[in-house]
Amino acid sequence: MAENLGKWKFGLQRTRQKVFGKLANILAGKRSVDEALLDKIEEVLIEADFGVDTTLKLIEAFKEVVRGNMSWSEETVYFFLKKRIVEMVSFEKEQMNQYVIEKPHVIVVVGVNGTGKTTTIGKLAYRFSKDGLKVLLACADTFRAGAGEQLSVWADRVSADIVQQKRGGDAASVAFDALDAAQSRRTDVLIVDTAGRFHTKMNLMEELKKICRVLKRKMETAPHEVLFVLDATTGQNGMNQVKLFHEAVGVTGIVLTKLDGTAKGGMVISIHQKLGIPVKWVGIGEGREDLLEFNAESFVEGLFE
Amino acid sequence: MFEDLIQKLDVAVRKLRGMGKLTEKNIGESLRTIRRVLLEADVQYKVVKEFIARVQSKAVGEEVLRSVTPGQLVVKIVHEELVSLLGQANVPIRFGKTPPTIIMIVGLQGSGKTTFAGKLGRQLTKMNRHPMLVAADVYRPAAEDQLAILGESINVPVFSMRRTTPIKIVQEALVAARKQNCDTLILDTAGRLHIDEKMMSELDEMQQAVKPTEVLFVADGMTGQDAVRSAESFLNRLDFDGIVLTKMDGDAKGGAALSIRYVTGKPIKFISASEKLDSIEPFHPDRIASRILGMGDVVSLVEKAQEAADAKKMEKLAQKLRKQEFTFEDFFDQLQQVKRMGSLSQIAQMVPGLGRKVGGMQMDDDALVKVEAVIQSMTVEERQRPHIINGSRRKRIARGSGATIQDVNRLLKQFQMMQKMMKQMGRFGMKKFPGRVQMDF
After folding, report:
1. Peptide bond between residue A104 and the one before it cis (omega within 30 degrees of 0)
2. Which of B234, B261, B295 finishes a domain?
3. Sign of CA dihedral B248, B253, B258, B259
4. Does residue B8 sit at the A interface (CB-CB below 8 Å)?
5. Is B190 on the interface with A (CB under 8 A)?
6. Phi and psi at residue B266, in whole multiples of 5°?
């Protein structure tokens, strides 16, 4: 795990040099708050996909604090922004689901196409089985070519069981069968992989609702968790994605993937602010260990320090 | 795809439209709104900055200040800048002179390369080519399975090999393609991060080893600010030939597309939506551009009117009006000038707000023809002194022009009203005359 944290830190290091470097250059030899400084802060935040609203809000808050105090050191600027943003993305530990209060603990993984749902599931399954939990994977993506095969490879890698049907089958019935199997096999965690779908496609969103409905019929408390997988490179559209998925099936947490690239994933701040949905995991690579619990401090340090 | 963005920009500049006088304040306010709209559509920060700077420098230029409709001219500048962001006409895929043509598909993970490869394969089959899909992704679990299933569904051969290097796979695929008479190879490479040195140099090596005819960079249409960073890195490594935008069926506003094109200078060749294998479209920037311009172009309308109007005749007409001598002959001249500007529906396209509503509807150019015929059936005296046109003259004119007596009556009545109007206008001066003739047939 330490090695992985290092990897994340390394990923962040790059952004740190870049972003910090940029801001530091502006601030070098400059100690008063002027338009140029505000512009630079704006640029850094917008380029991290914070979005216009959140960026303006932060800048307004900053102006409010500096009012009448025209000389600021660069450390205080960072300190202020960092503190503010950490506050914006933090959530109570209780919101982090406690696994296996009830057997099986059912997790449904959703998202638009190509964000890394199946890879995330592989990594989650690895984590749970490493903790000695019995994991069952359900391939409710009966649409994409090769989806079942991809999940099977992961199931082998992390020695988890898998339930699947042939391509073109009914997604909800796979979920139902999988929950049935999980209950009879005394499985600890059931993870349901769903097909990537656009939040704007009504019929596909209905299918997703049906998957959750069917699970609930079999087990009243299921699904215990609905994880939305968000690609860190996603722009302002991310808000609408999460909003519509949330309205359909009640998203309980976000997995922010592909954070090992140059994208910062700043969208999650607005999402947390507007919808109250926290980031729970971050994906930082394709290996089975490349999934970390979200840490607000590290995340924000990646943007500024 | 750009509808939403275009519409929002339209709203942002609409305020300027009617403005006769531009101040720094009202331009500044509109530019701020435009800036926000672009940023919210994920256009990259620096691209937005340059866009605004260019619009601003043009908008305070002399041409605008001297223009008859400065607000409208600013709208035109915004439209033109948007069009230049989009690029020119569609750039199709190049095929090699000697087969096989090799098309290499590259991009980040999850951008939709494999699905696009399948769609392209299908498109090429429709063009009577014989493509082969090559699974050059040896990393993602079951990537070759996905391609195999896609290939089967579109009836295109798929080449794959396990436990070897991508370069070796492509080399073997070339041999297989010759044997199977395939003329186009589509290389589906593994998704990779642009900062992954090892994976990026693999692409370098592959490009040098197989010398692809065409390299296409696949980008997710929903990408945010990072789009430019990854596209630039891929460009520096591979100098790709074109861009493919995927996932355009969501509600993303497509700002990433504009930024990538602008920053790399490479054309967007395809846009792709949904996983159905038919939904791929060659991208035609000029068509979107004409739609943007179709939002109303009063400037060209005014320019056209000025071109069409003969200055000397206008002066003469103005004098006549001052003396209140507007005749059917002058009216006929006016009609000819309007006709020189184009058909009524073309003119309507240029009127803000009207263009989209009219779209395709047939405007009644025939009505004008009828009016012309009626005037042409009058004698010179009748044209100069319309009040002499009595009942029997009306009957003759109707017969001569093929119109009914009612038509002739209606025209005479409208002409009288027009004369009355002209008299009133004559009192206020003639400066704005050319744009104000009311013709309500």
Report:
1. yes
2. B295
3. negative
4. no
5. no
6. -95, 150
B108 and B254 inside one domain: yes
For residues B427 and B320, state if they share a domain.
Answer: yes
B53 interfacial to chain A (CB closer than 8 Å): no
Q: How many CB pairs under 8 A join A and B?
A: 135
Whole-complex ipTM? 0.84
Task: Evaluate whether residue B438 is within a structural domain.
Answer: no
Domain that includes residue B236, residue range:
101-295
Question: Are residues B405 and B337 part of one domain?
Answer: yes
Same domain, B144 and B241: yes
Which residues on B lie below 8 Å from A147 (Cβ)?
A: 146
Chain B residue with minimum CA distance to A156: B141
Nearest CA in chain B to A198: B250
pLDDT digits (tens, 9 = 90+) for A220-239: 998 999 999 999 999 999 99
B46, B108, B226: best to mutate for the A interface, most A CBs within 10 A: B226
Do residues B108 and B17 share a domain? Answer: no
Interface of B with A in 79-118 (CB under 8 A): 108-112
Do B282 and B137 fall into the same domain? yes
Q: Is B3 on the interface with A (CB under 8 A)?
A: no
Interface membership of B325 toward A (CB under 8 Å):
no
- Residue B418: the pLDDT is 76
CA distance A3 to chain B (A): 18
Cβ separation B222–A260 shorter than 8 A? no
Q: Helix axis angle, A74-89 relative to A296-304, nearest 10°? A: 140
Q: Which residues, given as ranges, of chain B have pLDDT below 50?
A: 296-299, 352-362, 429-441
Range B284-296 burial, b when 16+ CB lie within 10 A, else e: bbeebbeebbbbb
B213-258 confidence digits (pLDDT tens): 999 999 999 999 999 999 999 999 999 999 999 988 777 778 888 8
pTM as predicted: 0.75
Reported as a single tens digit per residue, the pLDDT across B77-128 is 887 888 888 887 788 889 988 889 999 999 999 999 999 999 999 999 998 9
Residue B262 sits in a domain whose CATH number is 3.40.50.300
B118 and B196 assigned to the same domain: yes
Q: Which of B109, B141, B193 sits opposite A154 (nearest CB)?
A: B141
On chain B, the residues whose CB falls within 8 A of the CB of A241 are 250
3-state helix, strand, coil in chain A (%, to 5): 50, 15, 35
Does the residue B441 lie in any domain?
A: no
Pairwise CB contact (< 8 Å): A237 & B42: yes
The pLDDT score that the predictor gives to residue B415 is 82
Whole-angstrom Cα distance, residue B256 to residue B347? 34
* Number of domains present in the structure of chain B: 3
B108 and B78 in a common domain = no
Nearest beta carbon to residue B141 from set A43, A150, A262: A150
- Residue B347 distance to chain A (closest CA, Å): 37
The strand ranges marked E within B323-440 are none
**Measured between alpha carbons, how far is A96 from A224 in angstroms, rounded to an integer?**
12
B291: left (phi over 0), alpha (psi -120 to 50) or beta: alpha
- Domain end, chosen from B57, B86, B115, is at B86
Q: Please tell me whether the peptide bond between A278 and the residue prior to it is cis, using omega within 30 degrees of 0.
A: no
